[in-house]
Design goal:
Layout (H helix, E strand, L loop, with lengths): L3 H7 L1 H8 L2 H11 L9 E4 L5 H10 L3 E5 L2 H10 L5 E3 L12 E7 L8 H11 E12 L3 H11 L3 H17 L4 H10 L3 E8 L4 E7 L3
Parallel strand pairs: 1-2, 1-4, 2-3, 4-5
Antiparallel strand pairs: 5-7, 6-7
Helix pairs in contact: 3-4, 7-8
Length: 211
């Protein structure tokens, strides 16, 4: 399997074009509504070209930082918004003090990571008690593919984006609601909600570090 970090270094510009769509952006903004009340220190892990980071920063202020392993993605994020605080970081070894963050967000990131348990343990480490992990991940299953793509068809460009995302996630693997819950709980996080999003193509999960 082609390492996802190398892949996204190579395709930063087309990835930005594909995901700069109203539907994708709307669900990026939705993640901000799941942050804990008064959140100010947020790490958007795997921020890519800054889609989700921009919306999170609008909701929380300058305390939101975008992080990505692929430097070309950070360059695209900088072009989108020169004021975004950005850092090049590995999800398995975050350059963040323990217990210092109100939230860590992932938009279509966890499924790409080679060591997902290690990344989730890092999330637990850096969150304060009551801090939240907010994830948007592709959903496994034939039903999710069929229903999600069918709902996307009336908007051709979104249908194209959805098909590419579906194809990519098939290569790396997608969680079910049950497996995503199990992974979060195994890391020590308490799951607050898991719901379908992106027309059924994705899952929006919210979990918190117990007090």
């Amino acid at each position: 399997m082609f390492h996802s970090g190398l892949l996204f270094k190579a395709v930063a510009l087309p990835y930005e074009w594909v995901t700069r769509h109203l539907v994708w952006e709307r669900h990026c903004a939705k993640m901000a509504t799941r942050l804990p009340e008064g959140a100010r220190r947020v790490l958007d892990l795997g921020c890519g070209p800054g889609n989700s980071t921009t919306h999170l920063r609008a909701a929380t202020g300058a305390g939101t930082v975008g992080a990505d392993y692929a430097f070309p993605m950070l360059q695209r994020a900088r072009k989108r918004d020169a004021a975004l605080p950005l850092v090049c970081a590995d999800g398995g070894n975050l350059p963040v003090r323990s217990g210092s963050l109100d939230a860590v967000t992932f938009h279509s990131v966890l499924y790409l990571l080679p060591d997902q348990p290690a990344a989730l343990r890092e999330v637990l480490r850096v969150l304060r008690p009551g801090g939240r992990a907010v994830l948007l991940e592709p959903q496994a299953g034939t039903r999710a593919t069929f229903v999600g793509l069918l709902r996307a068809l009336p908007t051709p460009r979104w249908a194209f984006t959805a098909l590419l995302w579906r194809t990519m996630s098939a290569l790396y693997g997608r969680p079910t609601p049950e497996s995503l819950r199990a992974a979060l709980e195994a890391a020590g996080l308490r799951v607050l909600e898991i719901e379908e999003t992106l027309g059924g193509l994705g899952l929006l999960a919210v979990a918190e570090r117990p007090a």
